[in-house]
UniProtKB/TrEMBL annotation:
Involved in the gluconeogenesis. Catalyzes stereospecifically the conversion of dihydroxyacetone phosphate (DHAP) to D-glyceraldehyde-3-phosphate (G3P). Gene3D superfamilies: Aldolase class I (3.20.20.70). Pfam families: TIM. It catalyses: D-glyceraldehyde 3-phosphate = dihydroxyacetone phosphate. Its EC number is 5.3.1.1. It is found in: Cytoplasm. InterPro entries: Aldolase_TIM, TIM_sf, TrioseP_Isoase_bac/euk, Triosephosphate_isomerase, Triosephosphate_isomerase_AS. This is Triosephosphate isomerase. The lineage of its organism: Bacteria, Pseudomonadati, Bacteroidota, Cytophagia, Cytophagales.
Amino acid sequence: MRKKIVAGNWKLNKTYEEALSLVSEIENMVKDEVNGDVTVIVSPPFPYLQSVGKLVQGNSKMHLAAQNVSEHDSGAYTGEVSAAMLKSVGVEYVIIGHSERRLYHHEDAQTLYKKLKAAIANGMKPIFCCGEPLEERDAERHFEYVGKQLHDSLSYLSNEEFDQVVVAYEPIWAIGTGRTASSQQAQEMHEYIREQLSRMFDAAAAHNTSILYGGSCNPGNAQELFSQADVDGGLIGGASLKSRDFTDIIKSF
Ligand code: PEP
């Protein structure tokens, strides 16, 4: 059975002290309040990974993710962080293909494919993000757009490599805007994604892949979104920076 996952993407937020307080609060709340079988992931900025990882390692529900990884293994790539480096400090998941990295850092499908390969080769699980901009939805080309994103980066993976991947559908018009996709919009896209995955890999792989929704998810809308048949959890931005909100989202299954 596929996993239920709630992943917090902290982005470019929090000082070191603030990050440690936030993760301690989340860890305590998860320990005290979360009973079900849910995988909780936190994604702090690079410099805090090891310290945050130490604070969650005793909690079997909690896991550590990086927000990015280099497609290169080593060498003269100033400012980059490799998959092996992340693995060596206890990182288990890595967000790949977030729309902010595609847009501001010009990460194309081929680069994302290389990042996926690097992460998987080093024993990490990618959280692969896809999602359409508003103009594509308005033009009713959103299925085609997301299908191409999936095909262009994922389809070159082997079945065994793909087994490690979590997919996150994040419509760009819903990220940080307060405008959430309706549960129906999320469900129909998640169903479409699963269908595409079953063509690229096989039905069992598609069935077992967790597909997360991301985009202005909050404690008020998480339950409705997570109750959809093909929505297996959420990738949470803004609301993951508040321990109470994040925990309430985790409790929405
Ligand atoms: C995100 O950027 O991954 C995200 C889902 O952000 P927010 O929840 O703030 O819309």
